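We modelled the chain as a single entity of 381 amino acids. Its sequence is:
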Amino acid sequence: MRRFIGAAALSAALLAPAGRASSSTAAQPAATGAFPAATVSKLDSAITQWFATWKAPGVVVAVTIPGKGSYIVARGKANPATGEPMRLDDHVRIGSVTKTFTVTLLLQLADKKLLSLDDPVSKYEPFVPNGKNITLRMLANMTSGLFSYTFDKQFVHGLLSNPHRMWKPRELVDIAIKHEPPFAPGKGFQYCNTNTVLLGMIIEKVTKRDIADDFKRMVFQPLGLTNTIWPAGESLPSPYAHGMTNQTLDDSVKDATHWNPSWGFTAGQLVSNLQDLRTWVKAYTTGALLSPAMQKERLTWVTLPPNQPQHKYGLGIGYDHGWLGHTGELPGYNTAPFYLPQQDATIVIEVNSDIGANKKDPAPALFKALAKIVTPNNVPD
């Protein structure tokens, strides 16, 4: 049960390849100011080749580089059962891209002096073992040493046995703290969903509001993100793409669209669409809602292995060969919104499948293929 697991992770007949031969797979028109025809042809071909390997139902792609061009398409099927085509405004579950929103709330509160990044977790949640030595910064940059509840085999089995169960954040953290920590606080790096769930719980204590209200007041409304929501249950706003997954007890492919996302909480619960993700990725990677000093904190990179100079993690944000952003995955969905400051370039990819191929996830694989075409000097791993 590989990625479930890493989900809310930094990465069959129903799933027949989607080409350009039929109306159900044809791309929607590109935006004005399109790339030259030769570049568009290469991008089209890259997506076609990607479909042949990953066999996802559908994909939405937006590539924009001011002064060079824009390429925005929806291809394939939003609903494999009905053949309904993918649309540019389809809502999807964005998985761990939620972490970028959660850490932004944390940094906003730090800007307002309502908390400090170096506060110990024990100040807010005294039940966490060794919480006096784990700081909020460590939660945000994945150096806390806490065990990720999504690595717990019993949790994964229970979740896949009943994907409609509603989970409470304290339940998720309690699963994690039953395990021995993989390393002492600040002495290692491991991507861990428990960290961001705890941050959500702490943010609620500081603001004395539900996290849904915090997201709305502090992020969605200021940036005009009208298509980004904190889902109260299993439903998605219309229109939406159906998500297919093989993260099941028997590895069969199933429609995970209406699985309950509460197990992701502030590590992976949000829903959004292309328009909002294009706005959001540039906003948070450039510090639109923060002071310059606090944005500098966000972009302070962890140097502990496996982080490298060209591939590293900060406070709820990744750096990959110049690109800033974060991948997202929840069963049925895989998303990759990234921004390249040097060229003011944005690439956003939404896939309504999380089914991997060649040990790679679908959205990051397509991101790399497109970057090779439009930013050959900045190709992510």
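As a brief sanity check on the tokenised model: Confidence is low (pLDDT under 50) at residues 1-32. The CA atoms of residues 263 and 302 lie 27 Å apart.
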